[in-house]
């Protein structure tokens, strides 16, 4: 006589294998969160009103900026200062130099760079939105901008900068304004302006 009762087979999962799976899942999740936290400051510019991506200045660009500022002194601000190389170079040239940057990792890197270059007492780095930051205390401004923001920056410079301030625009000129000097060519070009800005 055959039994109508089906046998149930229990498969034992080794406890060691279960713990290993949990550890792997936790490590993978932790790495994912860490990568997200690190990447957010670099990706988030794409979600702002005007995207200002981080593109390091070339050696030629740094030299052209310093050439544009030759004979100048006072306070300098680098808008979108990135890794701080312009600020550090300006401080070495005798300026009290500040950097504005939204990316906290780049702000931290810039502070370390200034310290290692011996100019931390002559530099400051701020995690600030440039549209909410007043420029009136500066008489030298460096901007590595994008084309879409230059018209608005022109208005900001006009309303906040004192007469005889120098603006060094890198990669893109200030629209419809006449530079007093142009240095370099291609992507390394810098345009030098003095306030009040003069129309073309």
TrEMBL record:
- Respond yes or no to whether keyword Acyltransferase is given for this record: no
PANTHER family for the chain: FI06469P, METHYLTRANSFERASE DOMAIN-CONTAINING PROTEIN
Q: Which GO terms describe its cellular component?
A: mitochondrion
Where is the chain membrane-spanning? 20-43
* GO terms for biological process, alphabetical: methylation; regulation of mitochondrial ATP synthesis coupled proton transport
Q: Which organism is it from?
A: Nasonia vitripennis (Parasitic wasp)
Alphabetized SUPFAM superfamilies for the sequence: S-adenosyl-L-methionine-dependent methyltransferases
Q: What's the protein called, per UniProt?
A: Uncharacterized protein
Question: Which GO molecular function annotation, any one, does this entry have?
Answer: protein-lysine N-methyltransferase activity
| The family this protein is said to belong to | Belongs to the ANT/ATPSC lysine N-methyltransferase family.
What are the UniProt keywords, alphabetically?
Membrane, Methyltransferase, S-adenosyl-L-methionine, Transferase, Transmembrane, Transmembrane helix
